[in-house]
Every structure is written in structure tokens, then in C-alpha cells.
Write a structure and sequence with these properties.
GO terms for molecular function: AMP kinase activity; ATP binding. It catalyses: AMP + ATP = 2 ADP. Belongs to the adenylate kinase family. Catalyzes the reversible transfer of the terminal phosphate group between ATP and AMP. Plays an important role in cellular energy homeostasis and in adenine nucleotide metabolism. The protein is an alpha/beta fold. It has three domains: 139 residues, Rossmann fold (3-Layer(aba) Sandwich), CATH 3.40.50.300; 41 residues, no CATH class; 227 residues, Rossmann fold (3-Layer(aba) Sandwich). The protein is built from 17 helices and 18 strands. Strands 9, 10, 11, 12, 13, 14, 15, 16, 17 and 18 form a ten-stranded mixed sheet that branches. Strands 3-4-2-5-1-8 form a six-stranded mixed sheet, with helices on both faces. Strands 6-7 form a two-stranded antiparallel sheet. Helix 4 crosses helix 6. The protein is globular. The chain starts with 9 loop residues before the first helix and ends with a strand.
């Protein structure tokens, strides 16, 4: 049974997400646009490779767009938005278990939004060190081996929140409140966040991260025996396990965190919007539900924005769910166009001028034309709904692939599925275009740049190494592929995913007794894994010296 033969009823098409399924996404996917009403929700992001759910309030992961168009604000309301931001700086609370990636998230949020990071641990040490009245009270309890009372901690936090830098820039409250009493104290003083983030990661992943963690006592560097092993045997020999990284102590810390979290969340339940975001299930059901498509659009959007923000200029997106896999007869050009529109409008919303490019006709005579999967693409772009704010023709323009398409007012370029055709090579035009673009981002969406036969029926050999080297110069910012047994498209065995700046992750699809399915994280790789490495992730070798034949292919 192939993917193309799978159809679904409306109920089946609304495929649920596998929850709690591992999910990772770096940083907060919000833009500090004008303050939004409490009814809107943010799809918050995870730093961990296995965060299954994130809770959030009062913001949006992308501009709030209606069913037609994207509700793009662009620069038309930039002045009003800026004024609103100055009047109401962002206020964020974040909560996460040990090893959930909370520290990484806090750094990224602070860097992006300029908030004042307030950690109660750091604050407590600073108050004690400075000898303030609150610090003296806290020190008395600490010296006697007692927990600092809720009221003392709350007074310390409130004092910090009242300082000028916090009032001007906004705040990120890290790990506080930790009890119902602390939350209620803040409520009584009308101190509430705009956004409440909960990083949720399965216990087994958290335990593995902590128990596998190792410390180099000479350098202070942290390693992980599986995810980040030491560079050599000399370093490995001197690694030690921290005293609080034993299985029993980690379990105890997790239980304490859960109790605290369960006590705090009810205070913000009127604001809370929890979304489970593991890998979507039933991906062989065609057509994909709107929920599944939006999931992948947002994944691509967040990863690409992070890469662009990190000054990456040559990027590529490889996403091969069935509707975006041209090797399947369920390929849908409309899904590709929706993805490109979402990506383009997101950057246009930041005031970027985006040129969306589709390669034109190549070759002559019998070899003239463009690849079949791109036929009609330019026309579709022209008639698509690009929102109510005049994005098309101002912030978003269309062009072909080539140096002549690069205008000085363009800020970035999105190339739709650039590919070689029989007898023709698009890479020369692409290279001329990227040379003309200079340090402006060029983003390839589902490129297919392998060498095709020339007009003589043989592979083009002249300059092949240089072409392949150029194609490899684009850094992948998002990749998703389903994994099947070689030579088939059914059943789905698992998935390979990477979202910048994170590692490649291999998942196994698991059938549940109730007829449902879920995806389980097997292994992570810094570089894209080879077919043998993918196979070994599913069937670990007993002997490291054994060779394992590849049994999986990427869909």
C-alpha cells in the first residue's frame, strides 16, 4: 500500500499530533508587535530536542492572519506599533524542569527582545552580597539551613521589578513564582506577565541529559557521554559526574519541579493555551489537514528566521512530507506556494523587501521549457491572495533566477524549488544571482540540484565538481523527511528532522494499541546522518566493529 492510495475522512484528515512527542525549536517565535489582547495565543518554542508541549499566553507566533491573506501590517503601521511597544514593554515568565533548556531560551529571548533577565537565584545572591535589608533577612535563613520564606523572595523580586531599567525594557522572570503563595502575592500587586512559557520535556529525556552529563574538572567544560562526547581519551579519563546528576537526585528534582509547577499554573489558567506539538501523525493521509500544513509552515518559518538573524546568507529548506515530495503522485504545488507565502510575508512583516523567484524557460528546441513540477508556478504567485496591506508589488515582488533579477532595493531572495532539467543546468544562473546578491540572504526552498543527463544522454561532466561544490555551499536551516524501507513509501518507519540551530534528530514511528501512533526520539547527529547511521539508529549494532548494510531510505 503506497502513500498515494491512502485517503482519509474529514476526521482522519484532522490528524492529531503525537503527544507527548519530542519537539525542539530554538527561541521564542514571537515578534514584539503591538500588544495583543488576552484572547490571542502564542505558539511558544522549545530549546530542547524533546519538548512535547509549550504553554503560552497573549502573543502570536506569527502575525494574526485571517483565512484569506495574511493580515500583513508591513510598514504601514510601523509607527503605531513602535509607539505601542514603548508604552507597554514585554513581560514574560518562563518555567521549565532541570535540563529542559530554559537557560538557552532565556539567553535567546533576552538577546532578541532586550528584556531584563531576572533569576531569583542570581537575585538572591546579589542581595546578600550587597548587604541590603532583604539580603540580610535572606542570609539569616540561609545561614541556618532554612528555605527563604515566600514573602522575602517576593519582596526581593518586586523590588527588582520596580527599578528603572526593568520599567523601560520589560522583564523576563526566570523560574518564579515557584509556589501558589508567591503567585498570589504577585496577583495581589497586579503583577502579571504578557506571556507565560512552560517548557515541557518527557522525563526520560531529562533524566538522560542529566545522568549522561560529565564535567571536566580542569576546564569546567560540560560533556555528555552520548550527545556531546569528549574530544579524546585524555579528556575522557578525567571526566567526573556531578554529585547532583545521579538518577535518584534527578528524579527527586523533577518531582519537586512538577509539584511547584502544578501549584503555579492554576493562577494563570485563564491565560493559558497549551498545545501539544510532537511530530504530526498520519502523514500518509492525503490531503494533509490544515493543522499539519500550518505545523510545518511554522517549523520552517521559525528555523529560517533564526538562521537569517544569525547572519546566514545562503540557506536551503528541504521538506519532503508527501504533499511536498515530487517523487509521489500526491505532490501538491499549492502546498509549496502556501509555504513560500508564509515565509515571504513573515519577512515582509519586518519591513524586508522580498523577491520570490521561479526559474524561467531553459534550453532550446526539444529541451526548451521548465521542469513539470514548476509549470504554472509564476501564474499562481500572481493570482494568490497576498493580504490586505498591499504587500504584493511593494514588499513582495516576483522574478526569475539570474543576476539581472537582483535589484538594489531587494533585501532577500526566495527561490522556489530551483532544479536542473535534462540538458540544462540552473546552477550557473543561480551562482550569478548569488554573486549579485552579495551578503543579502538567498533562500532555496526544496532545491533539486543534482546533475541531470545532457542533451547527448550522458551526465554533464565539464565543471561538475564546481557545480556540486556550489550547491553544497547552501546551509540547511530546516530539513524534514519521512523514513521508509528502501524502495517503498509505506509504511512510515520514522522521520529525520533538523531545525536550525539544532541537531539532526532521528525518530521511530510507534504504533499504539488503541490504533494511534507516536514518534519516539532515537538519536541526534551534529551533521546530516548517512544511510548507515540512520539504519543503526533503528537497529543498534552489538559490536562497534561490525558493518551494517543500509536498509532505510529517505522519502
Amino acid at each position: 500500500m503506497a502513500a498515494s492510495s491512502s485517503s482519509s475522512s474529514p476526521a482522519a484528515a484532522s490528524a492529531p499530533f503525537a503527544a507527548p512527542g519530542p519537539h525542539r525549536r530554538p527561541g521564542l517565535a514571537l515578534r514584539p508587535s503591538p500588544p495583543t489582547p488576552p484572547s490571542s495565543s502564542l505558539s511558544c518554542c522549545r530549546a530542547s530536542p524533546a519538548a512535547a508541549a509549550v504553554s503560552s499566553v497573549s502573543a502570536t507566533a506569527a502575525p494574526n492572519r485571517g483565512p484569506r491573506g495574511m493580515g500583513l501590517r508591513c510598514r504601514a503601521s510601523e509607527g503605531a506599533a513602535a509607539a505601542a511597544r514603548k508604552e507597554a514593554p514585554l513581560k514574560v515568565m518562563i518555567s521549565g524542569a532541570p535540563a529542559s533548556g530554559k537557560g538557552t531560551q532565556c539567553r535567546m529571548i533576552v538577546e532578541k527582545y532586550g528584556l531584563v533577565h531576572i533569576s531569583t537565584g542570581d537575585l538572591l545572591r546579589a542581595e546578600v552580597s550587597s548587604g541590603t535589608e532583604i539580603g540580610k533577612k535572606a542570609k539569616e535563613y540561609m545561614d541556618n539551613g532554612m528555605l527563604v520564606p515566600d514573602q522575602v523572595v517576593t519582596d526581593m523580586v518586586v523590588s527588582r521589578l520596580s527599578q528603572p531599567d526593568v520599567r523601560e525594557r520589560g522583564w523576563l522572570l526566570d523560574g518564579y513564582p515557584r509556589s501558589y503563595a508567591q503567585a498570589q502575592s504577585l496577583e495581589s500587586m497586579k503583577i502579571r506577565p504578557d506571556i507565560f512559557i512552560v517548557l515541557e520535556v518527557p522525563d526520560d529525556i531529562l533524566i538522560d541529559r542529566c545522568v549522561g552529563r560529565r564535567l571536566d574538572p580542569e576546564t569546567g567544560k560540560i560533556y555528555h557521554i552520548k550527545n556531546f562526547p569528549p574530544e579524546n581519551d585524555e579528556v575522557s579519563a578525567r571526566l567526573v559526574t556531578r554529585s547532583d546528576d545521579t538518577f535518584e537526585k534527578v528524579k527527586s528534582r523533577l518531582e519537586t519541579y512538577k509539584q511547584n509547577s502544578e501549584a503555579v499554573i492554576p493562577t494563570y489558567s485563564d491565560l493559558l493555551n497549551q498545545e501539544f506539538r510532537g511530530i504530526p501523525t498520519r502523514l500518509n493521509n492525503i490531503p494533509h489537514s490544515r493543522e499539519i500544513r500550518k505545523y510545518f509552515y511554522n517549523e520552517v518559518l521559525v528555523a529560517t528566521r533564526h538562521a537569517v538573524e544569525d547572519k546566514k546568507t545562503r540557506l536551503q529548506i528541504d521538506i519532503n512530507i508527501p504533499e511536498l515530495n515530487p517523487e509521489m503522485d500526491v505532490y501538491r504545488i499549492g502546498t509549496l506556494m502556501e509555504l513560500v507565502r508564509e515565509l515571504s510575508l513573515s519577512f515582509a512583516d519586518d519591513g524586508k523587501r522580498v523577491k520570490v523567484c521561479v526559474q524561467g524557460s531553459m534550453g532550446q528546441g526539444a529541451f526548451a521549457g521548465i521542469p513539470l513540477q514548476l509549470a504554472g508556478t509564476r501564474k499562481i504567485l500572481e493570482i494568490m491572495d497576498w493580504g490586505e496591506y498591499g504587500a504584493k508589488g511593494t514588499f513582495i515582488n516576483f522574478g526569475a533566477v539570474g543576476a539581472s533579477e537582483v535589484d538594489k532595493e531587494d533585501d532577500m531572495f526566495i527561490l522556489i524549488a530551483p532544479q536542473n532539467a535534462v540538458g540544462n543546468c540552473i546552477i550557473d544562473d543561480m551562482k550569478a544571482m548569488t554573486d549579485a546578491a552579495g551578503d543579502r540572504p538567498v533562500i532555496l526552498v526544496n532545491p533539486r540540484l543534482k546533475d541531470m543527463p545532457g542533451s547527448s544522454g550522458v551526465m554533464q561532466t565539464m565543471g561538475r565538481d564546481m557545480r556540486l561544490k556550489y550547491a553544497a555551499s547552501f546551509e540547511t536551516c530546516y530539513s524534514f523527511r519521512l523514513l521508509f524501507y528502501a524502495g517503498s513509501f509505506y509504511p512510515i518507519m520514522g522521520a529525520l528532522r533538523m531545525a536550525y540551530p539544532n541537531k539532526y534528530e532521528i525518530y521511530r514511528r510507534v504504533d499504539e494499541p488503541n490504533g494511534q501512533e507516536r514518534y519516539v526520539l532515537l538519536e541526534e547527529f551534529v551533521e546530516k546522518p548517512t544511510p548507515d547511521e540512520i539504519t543503526n539508529a533503528f537497529r543498534p549494532r552489538k559490536n562497534e566493529n561490525e558493518k551494517s548494510a543500509s536498509g532505510f531510505c529517505k522519502g
